[in-house]
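User: Sequence in, structure out. Go.
Assistant: Echoing your sequence, followed by the structure tokens.
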Amino acid sequence: MESAAVLSVIVPMYNEEAVIPALAGRLRPALDDLGVTYEVVAVDDGSTDRTAPLLLEHARAWPELRLIRLRRNSGHQAALAAGLHRAGGAWVVSIDADLQDPPEVIADMLRAAREQGVDVVYGVRSDRSTDTAFKRYTAGVYYRLMRRMIGAEIPAQAGDFRLLSRAVVDVLLSLPERAPVYRLLVPSLGFASTSVTYARERRAAGETKYPLRRMVALAWDSAANFSAAPLRVATWLGALSFLMCLGLTAFGVVVWANGTVIPGWTSLFLAVLLLSAVQLICLGLLGEYVARIYRTVQNRPSFHVGFDSSAAPAQPAESAPMRRTAAVR
């Protein structure tokens, strides 16, 4: 079945069987009220529960719902990439399944894009009181750090809830990114953008699939993919260790000039320990970058599709703004 949708909505999911009924109950009315043709591309990121069977059950009564299943859990960003590769709409929205980002805001995003003639509309959280204080604090630190390291205009409190034109999607799909971080990659392209604000809601059901370790992994991927700052940290550590070695050398000269007899093993031990630690840190940082080069040379896909409930989509029915593509390339 070919698709000629004006709007595609990508919903990455991982073990979200508890929230699917509530998601369908809110997302479908919100999209039906838009008055445009649409498709919902639900990407099952290797779930181990009944997420996929439940989605197929809803698809029988909801023809606009498509299911993409990945063979293994590849991560949130890889699931987004899989959805982007199979979304055929002139406009593409990405939204999480937990309903913390209200589907009703999609109408505001589409309206803002059309009225203002922009290619990107960010969903910005004006109220995150439903999140824990720790999550609010770490999110603020993350965005401040990324803006300082990358220099791009990154909207604060804007996650992966956004609307993109077909021009932006085509550019994203043409990039050789093996581990894309779209919340940083999209702003770096320089397309005209605007934002809509909303209050972040509580999770409708189930538990979060983004624990602290995944947040730390995202922060590291963001830094390593978009900046050489970690390598510069290694450089500064090397310079600091060199200065400390000079200090130890001056100390040894003074002790020798004063005629003080010392065994010497303490200073030697500290110097070797310091230099060894710095070398290990530098090797670890360099190794991370070499690992990324290695993955790129291998040319392995970042996701594997095991099931697609419909054929590949056709060209979209509505043409989104294309005038900025040449400048981005």
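User: And one key feature?
Assistant: Residues 7-211+301-328 form a domain with the Spore Coat Polysaccharide Biosynthesis Protein SpsA; Chain A fold (CATH 3.90.550.10).
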